[in-house]
Amino acid sequence: MSAVPSPVFEDTPQRVFPRHSINVPLDLIALRSGVPENLPGRCTDLSEAGVGAVVAGELAAGQQVAVELRLPNVGVPLRARALVRYQSRLCCGLEFVGLSVEQREMIRYWVYRSASQPVDFKDFKNEEKRGVAKIEALVAAAPLAAVPRHRIRIGRRGSYVLFVCMLALAGLGWWQWQRTWNELEGRAPVESGLRVSPETMEKRIVTKVEPVYPEAARKAGMQGLVVLDAVIAPDGSVKHLRAVSGPDLLVRSATEAVQSWKFEPYLSSGKAVEVETTIAVEFRLN
Q1: What is d(CA 170, CA 151) in angstroms, rounded to the nearest whole number?
Q2: What's the whole-model pTM score?
Q3: CATH of the domain at 269
Q4: Tens-digit pLDDT profile for residues 175-200
Q5: What is the domain count for the chain?
Q6: Structural domain of 241
Q7: Could you tell me if 60 and 154 are in contact, meaning their C-beta atoms sit under 8 angstroms apart?
Q8: How far apart are CA 191 and CA 118, in angstroms?
Q9: Who contacts 211 (Cβ-Cβ below 8 Å, separation ≥6)?
Q10: pLDDT above 50: residue 230
């Protein structure tokens, strides 16, 4: 089985976000006749705008899907919605939809840690083609459904029952699809509430405690960026922190320091409110 080529969107001469080569597994959820289907795949490149991949299944341009992948050196998986921009011989381009600030920070942190060089679009196409053979072999190895040898006659009553069953299955599939989206979206934020950009909250810092560089991390030559999801209380204190990415030793030190930070209360309609934001703490040996 091979994918039917879908319309390809023209590439712009210049890209806002450079593509970086990557080779990790990717899980994709697509809707098939109202039922969510998991398709295995592999990433070939990644940027803050989207991901290039080889996927074992047919997709259509403009189709909305869910993707999940694990970035090296990042502790939590990246889960996001995406639009299919094109697919040709199982190679596809996916454009992220509604990527959050912390998800962008995860991608930037991976680029920083991996020192990945931007890939040229022509090289990207060649990398995709090299992975097609493996995915096509996976699809070809799947067992084929048995073909019935006899025609089945269905009367009017049977047709009505069959129609009702199809509606029920479609409703069940849609419910499963929505539940899958809710699960993917529900894992990202710390708590529901007003989200404020890191740049805005950084200007409202009143008390800032610098983290202590762990001696064990210093001896090991460990450095990098720690990204934390934070909930700031109406009085400006740090109510809750959750690590998004970063080495464990550095995460502990950054969390202890940020827990003592104090912010100017954030006002909404003249009233101090609780807000969510993202805090990045960088550790450098020099």
Answers
A1: 25
A2: 0.42
A3: 3.30.2420.10
A4: 555 555 554 444 444 444 688 888 88
A5: 2
A6: 194-283
A7: no
A8: 35
A9: 250, 253, 254, 256, 257, 258, 281, 283
A10: yes
